[in-house]
Every structure is written in C-alpha cells, then in structure tokens.
Amino acid sequence: MMPRSVADARAARAWTQAERWGTLRAMELAAYFDRIGYSGPRMPDLATLKAVMRAHVAAIPFENIDVQMGVRSSTALPGIFDKLVVRRRGGWCYENNGLFGWALGEMGFDVRRVCGGVMRIARGDAALGNHLTLIVTLDEAPWLVDAGFGGSLAGPIPLAEATRHYPPFAVALARQPDGYWRFEERYGTAEPFSYDFLPDPADEALFSRQCLTQQTDAASVFVQNLVVQQRQGDRHVSLRGRVLLERWTDGQATRRLRNAGEFVDMLRGQFGLEVPGVERLWPRIVARHAELFPDEATEAVA
C-alpha cells in the first residue's frame, strides 16, 4: 500500500502524463467531490445523478480564460483534472463535461460522450464536434446530461420532446426532420441558443480537431471574446468581456466593469476564480468592447 504522505503529494501535483490516469482513482474521485462540495449518496441512480449535477454546475463555472491567455487546452483527462479540481478553475464544455462524465463513470453510471453542434441551425454540419455533451442511460432510458453549456441546464432531462423550466431559462428538446435532436435554451423573448446532436458515441478525433480550432482560429468566438458564466441557484450570471449580465426569472441587470482591478475582483468574488496574470487581458477586453460597441464612450485603460 502506498504511504499516505506519498499519495497526498501525488494527488496535489499536476496530472501531466496520460498513462498515469487511472491510478489512485478513489482519491481522485474524493477530490472531485470535495471540489464540488458534494457529500451525498454515490449510488448510480437518478437521485444521485441530479444531486451531483446540481453540485457541479453550482461549483465550477464555464469559462474560456485559458483561450484568451493563449494557454493551450485539450480533451485529455489528466490536464482537465489538474485544472478544474487541483487548481480550482472553471472550463468550457470539453473540460466540464469531460470531468463530469469521468466522475459519473467512476460512480458506476452508463455514460456516453456525444458530439454536439452549437448553432448548427445557422452554421450547418461544420459545427458538429464544437460541443461535448453526455447521455446517461438509466433503466434502459437515455437522459441528456450537460454541465458544460454555461449553466442553463440545472439537471438531467429525459431524451424526449418536451419543454422544461429551469429558472431563469426554459429549455427544450425536439427531434429534427434529419434525425438530430435539438437542445434549446430560451430566456424571455430572446432568440433561443441551441445545439444539435445524435445520441451516438462521439467521434473523439473530431473533438480534438474542434477543440484546437476553437482556441486557435481567429474566427472562433472563444478567441474573440472572453466569457465566464454560471448558474447560481435560480440566477444566471455571465461576464462577456467587460459586461456583467445577471438574469432572474422576472428581469435582468447589466454592469460594465471599469478597470482591471474590478475585472480581477469580479472573477474572484463572483465566480471563485483565481487566475495568475489574468489582469493582462484587460487592454484586449477594452479594445474588443470598443470594436463591438463603437458608439459607447471609450474609457482609458486602467
């Protein structure tokens, strides 16, 4: 048996070698539960699935700060574990659902990684693979499980046509004429935001290509814009560039950050994120805001 001091030291180090994944899994799963603040049952049933997903979404925000800082991400589990659990960061779909799917599998759930295409309705099949979502099968019935779409979905939903309410959003699943399923999130009268998917096992090579493209292509929305967002109870909070948007069922409010200090404080206080050197992004954030909103008065970069 490995001495506890050695195991603790290894658990605290970055997981940099993929071949080491699979060792000390009991400790890794315990660290994941600690990260999301979950201490409930671990039986692979619907009640546990709902509870663990609720805890994950509440604890780990969606964010693309590494893309903005030029730090390369991948779909490999060791790096994802180090980032989201050890360093207590957030992540985008490949990371959030990658970690969540791994944890569910370790708990005994039947989990399938699935390729989604965000806004395939407008972008066509080129969008496929730009989103990782999950299908969990319980008692031979499939459930859509997605902790990596920014927090609109607060729990698993049956793979069946229906509209459900997860305040402040309404979410819907509908089968499309070409056989795909479409997941939509809606807020008020705004246009829905969606992704399409087939409930088949993912093309992992496609994930790898899309993951790279979305963090290197100048046309990628993740390269162009910083985004951090999270469901916090029945409130949804998102930071896009320098604009903070808070949504409730009966209204919303916006705030424009004024300087780098406010930006760093917002990441720390609102989202629980400590990112060394993140203040260096501020001039770029201000410049992008001016590009998108040229009619607004330009403030000095602070």
Automatic annotation (TrEMBL):
SUPFAM superfamilies found in the cross-reference section: Cysteine proteinases (SSF54001)
Protein name according to UniProt: Arylamine N-acetyltransferase
UniProt record similarity statement: Belongs to the arylamine N-acetyltransferase family.
Gene3D superfamilies: Arylamine N-acetyltransferase, Cysteine proteinases
Superkingdom per UniProt: Bacteria
